[in-house]
Amino acid sequence: MQPAFRASSGQTVLITGARAPVALHHARLFHAAGWRVVLADMPARPLSSSSRACAVYQRLPSPRFHPEDFAIAVEALVEREKPALIIPTCEEVFYLAALRERRGLGAELFAPGLDLLQTAHNKHDFIRLCEGFGIAVPVTRLLRSPEDLTGLGKEAGNLVFKPVWSRFAGQLLVAPTPGKLKHVVPSTAMPWVAQERLQGEEISAYAVARGGKVLAVSIYRSLYRAGAGAGVCFEPVGDAAAREFVETFVQKTGWTGQVSFDLMRLKDGSVRPLECNPRATSGLHFFKDADRFVRALSQGGAEVLPDVTRIQTVRLAMWIYGLPAALRSWDIRRFRKVFGAAEEIVGTADDPAPGRAQIPAFLEIAAIALRHRISLQSATTRDIEWNGPDQSSI
Prior knowledge:
Blueprint: E1 12-16, H1 21-32, E2 36-41, E3 54-59, H2 67-81, E4 85-87, H3 92-103, E5 108-109, H4 114-121, H5 125-132, E6 140-143, E7 159-163, E8 173-174, H6 178-181, E9 192-196, E10 201-210, E11 213-225, E12 231-236, H7 240-253, E13 257-265, E14 271-277, H8 290-299, E15 312-313, H9 315-328, H10 332-341, E16 343-344, H11 353-372, H12 376-381
Helix pairs in contact: 1-8, 9-10
């Protein structure tokens, strides 16, 4: 169990993954609670760097492609800024955890150990972990070679296929046709899973924990998504079964840090875990009481409850992804209703600069996508993706 840091006004927090709206939200919360906020990431102009909450922004080398340079840069940043707490928000958490194990960090990293992070991130190992805790799970088979697909063609209509190391549902295949199933080419280095296709409503959960104790939980559903993956518009929901699952997982693993889940709520009200994101996700946006949230995260103690009830969204993403989805489904009325009811996450009345920063940030990502001939979603994480333990070379 990691010791809880005793926070006080004036301390410095280092928040990594500054490109992400959740990093911006963390920065605003810590700034409002009296902390000095240092942000770090790879892009030249990430969203959070323009926020009034940001005291310092440090650009870092890619941990995926330049792990040693990343390690040296992080060590120098920690030595210079002397943060009391490091909060990762994206998949750089794996590289920071690896660095902590090999060389130390000089500050508390708000994340569990690398082995647990990898187990939770692996879409097969996560299900096996939950099963070991006595949690009901969807039938999930590991595919390590093309031969493992033998006989699955007839069952494909009731299965979901995805790589064990993936994010944003970028390669997700739901009930694939025989033609699409040919795109599944598992190997020992890049295994896949074939998971039972459950019928119900997909919901998500975000939690903050220390030493196996839940300190904050929000449960929500995505009203619009970027393709089949990450949500861009979120609505809070209540679900006792989802809450119970989160508590069980956190307690059984002794989790310290942030953790998020995709869950399927069945017609009988029970939930089944689909996959885990051992990092921050959009559920963070349902917490606005800075003092209480920061105190819970940094010190432990009493749980803080979500205090935001409005729909949350990134309006630019709604125009890019939500509107085309509404046009395809012939449901513009719903889009207009949700768009009008939603609260903007990025550009706020008291911190408008990140709203204006979205265009240059988007253009930087678009340039990466064009240069490497990948999707916009893939471009957002290309330099920080963690695709297995063979990358733990820091």
